[in-house]
Specification:
One of its GO terms (cellular component) is 90S preribosome. The protein is an alpha+beta fold. 33% of the residues lie in helices and 28% in strands. Among the domains are: 47-334, Methylamine Dehydrogenase, Chain H; 373-416, no CATH class. The model is unreliable at 534-549 (pLDDT under 50).
Length: 688
Amino acid sequence: MQVSSLNEVKIYSLSAGRSLPEWLSDRKKRALQKKDVDIRRRIELIQDFEMPTVSTKIKVSRDGQYVMAVGTYKPRVRCFDTYQLSQKFERCLDSEVVTFEILSDDYSKIVFLQCDRFVEFHSQHGHYYRTRIPKFGRDFSYHYPSCDLYFVGASSEVYRLNLEQGRFLNSLQTDASESNVCDINPVHFLFAMGTAEGKVECWDPRTRNRVGLLDCALSSVTADTEIDGLPSISALKFDGALNMAVGTSTGQVLLYDLRSSNPLIVKDHHYGLPIKSIQFQHQLDLIISADSRIIKMWNKDTGKIFTSMEPEYDINDVCLYPNSGMLMTANEAPKMNIYYIPVLGPAPKWCSFLDNLTEELEENPESTVYDDYKFVTRKDLENLGLSHLIGSSLLRAYMHGFFMDIRLYHKAKMMANPFAYEEYRREKIRQKIEETRAQRVQLKKLPEVNKELALKLIEEEGEEQQVTRKRKQKNLPSLLKDDRFKVMFENPDYQVDEQSEEFRLLNPLVSKISEKRKRKLKILEELEAQEQEEEEEPEGKASDAESSESSDDEKGWVEEVRKQRKLLRQEEKVKRQERFKEDQQTLLKPHFFEIKEGEEFRSFKDSAKKQKLMKKTLEDRLKLEEKLGTLNVSDTTVGSKQATFKLKKSEQQKKQQEAEKQHRQERKTLRRSASHLKSKRGRGRLFH
């Protein structure tokens, strides 16, 4: 049971805590209650007071004995007997229920309005009758004097179904395009309906004429409210003969006196969400209004907030148990919430023990837990960056620190350290694992990188330490503890790739060296034992043994290297075959290329010739170049060869060179002809 306090009004959440699954046996449930403290301390007021997925509507019968709720999935209705504190029956339906009404004092007569236009009647034994209305319905009300059901929905008409005659009567024609809610006054039976245009139409069932029209959309707009569109009516409730409360789709609640067209008071929820439910509490003159996020209780005369509740899940409906301080909600969650507020009234007679529990809790103020507040010190505020809030209404001074809203604390903590919860979770998991390992044999922790190498070094260090202890020498520093080699066991880039070719070829050598080292250590231990026993042996014996062992090791190493090479060749062969198969499966499509202007097309034979030349040796290429005249090889005085190459010229360069040659020849011929003419003229003058 959770206890919260707002404006010094204590609210006890009776449905808080973990719920046990239905498929558990009674024996397992008792075992869990013994182990888990939270399950043992929880209060299960009504057994299995929940729906499979979501609960949409909840109501109490007039005699107060039965609580009925509808929900999904699958669509169903559940009836709970408060005298037995358990479920009485459950009935599944064909489609989801929009709303329902209990016509009798108990559960014997129920009417369901379903989402597929069907109206279903249930009696005490179960399903009784089913009929259909012309348009989709959204709400309905029962007129007790005439036994008429008034249906409103996606139509301008209000359909009337008489339950005494068992037939539809003439419908009421309204000015609205659609209607959302309706209600009938319990005193003078005035019928009121809320439209999608934000108006409330009042009708007299006796004359079937409209007697009043209220424009609530204009009245809901005040200086403080911000409205994006035209508000429609989403909730409607009468209180006595003269008062009526109207809820809008933009989150305002308007309280009217039927003798005036102006509202007495306008209350805004400041969330912009449609009002889902309106209830009246007559002992303290309170109005309980709820949207999908919050339940607010406020004084209907002054509009002053009394208290409020914000459940964990979205709210679909609110039901106030008559003449008590108990409140029930249907939410977007399997579990239906039950709240007990002692200020509103006493507990119902079927759970009168709640008064004793709350009195005991109030007598012991130390047991009160502030679930909605967090105690923080000045240092905590500085770490969160909230020290500027000291002195504001968001922090309440208490002893050596402050109380702040738990939601604000979580937001600030997430901003300061977004991965705090993950770190806390990992640390807790690590602690649990270490606790379970406490009784086991403690092993040395290996690094995450190169574990096998580290294990090998640890084994070798242990062997060397034993030798050094016997010889009374100083221990050498470990590679694992040396800072110079620390990166090799931390950075994954230094991980030894055991599948690489180099490792597979060197691995036999490494394994043989390690075996050789172990054998040497054994030989040294044997020598020390022999010295202690003072037994003399020839000096060459050990060396001969070592040489024979080393030759055997070399032979074994060569064989292993050969095996590895064979394996590598086989793997390469398999890879080549796979590539060849992939090449055969791929279909080559022709590619077309465009030749640039000023360039001539060359045949593909040139590229083939180039490929053939590239395959030939350097000597063959030099001979071919020498035949073509692009290469000149000459001997130098020193005795070495000297080769000069001529670059191949493109066709454009050849054309330019030919043009230049023709131009030079033309100039030469012109010069010769000019000199010839000059010589003739000179000779003629001499003869004259």
